[in-house]
Write a structure and sequence with these properties.
By secondary structure, this protein is mainly beta. It is 8% helix and 56% strand. The chain has 2 helices and 17 strands. Strand 14 and strand 15 form a beta hairpin. It is globular, with a radius of gyration of 19 Å.
């Protein structure tokens, strides 16, 4: 039960807040990269509509992403929840299909004119998120340093004057599948110090299309298993995916995603 609640919480945080923030747990959670619904085997799409039905204990809802490719490396789209507009976005991709520039307008009854413009830079051992204002001036940065296994070991938040605002660190023990997680505040005081679970060998099986079919939930200490069942089109891109969670001798369907892909040719 605790693992299911953790999965649901982290999923919701990832869906609606990943545009603006990151943390060591969220970086680890996203390492499987199973929710990049805009990605295809080849960049020959005109548009993708991805509808994801989420089955929670007390609620079922649908997230819908609409991706329109104005070029192979530029995507403009929107996100809706139960047909209610949540955000409008523009992605610029590099040739590895990673987002290197993202502009998002969020829509909420409580917040008006909520915008984010983030530029991403990548090296072999780091990822930098650069937050820009309406004049494309730097507001702040988040620097994610990684080890040789691409696991985040330090996340540093700095303001426009390069003053450190907060910091997180992770010290991994890959033999025990754990890491010591520390969070520091503006005064470099430790405000959180705990041991967390992370399984770097989370992939169990892949299919002939190189898509994950079975994996451990990376942050689960009791080895929650997740499976994916796919249906593919003639170009080798999946158009339906059923995700199931196996935990405590029970199984439940977590999500069903359908992708309507319109190709250029």
């Amino acid at each position: 039960m605790r693992s299911q609640k953790l999965i649901i919480l982290l999923f919701l945080l990832n869906t609606f807040n990943a545009f603006s923030q990151t943390s060591i747990p969220s970086e680890l959670m996203n390492k499987p990269r199973t929710d990049d619904f805009y990605k295809l085997k080849e960049n020959n799409a005109e548009s993708i509509v991805a509808s994801e039905t989420n089955y929670l204990r007390n609620e079922t809802y649908i997230n819908k992403w609409i991706f329109n490719y104005s070029a192979d490396t530029i995507i403009r789209g929107k996100l809706l929840k139960n047909e209610e507009l949540k955000s409008v976005f523009e992605y610029v991709l590099d040739y590895d299909k990673r987002i290197i520039d993202m502009r998002v307008n969020f829509f909420s009854p409580n917040v008006k004119n909520d915008k984010q413009h983030i530029r991403y830079k990548f090296t072999d051992r780091a990822k930098i998120l650069i937050f820009l204002d309406d004049q494309s001036e730097i507001k702040s940065k988040i620097i994610v340093d990684m080890d040789s296994l691409q696991s985040p070991i330090r996340i540093t938040s700095v303001n426009s004057n390069n003053e450190i605002q907060s910091k997180e660190t992770a010290d991994y023990n890959y033999r025990t599948n754990t890491y010591n997680y520390k969070v520091y505040n503006y005064y470099n005081e430790i405000v959180l110090n705990k041991t967390e679970y992370y399984n770097k060998n989370f992939v169990i099986e892949k299919n002939n299309f190189d898509d994950i079919t079975k994996m451990f939930w990376p942050l689960s200490s009791n080895k929650v298993i997740i499976t994916f069942e796919y249906k593919y089109d003639k170009k080798g891109n999946w158009i339906k995916r059923i995700k199931k969670n196996f935990s405590n001798n029970s199984v439940n369907i977590a999500t069903v995603v359908k992708r309507n892909i319109k190709y250029k040719d």
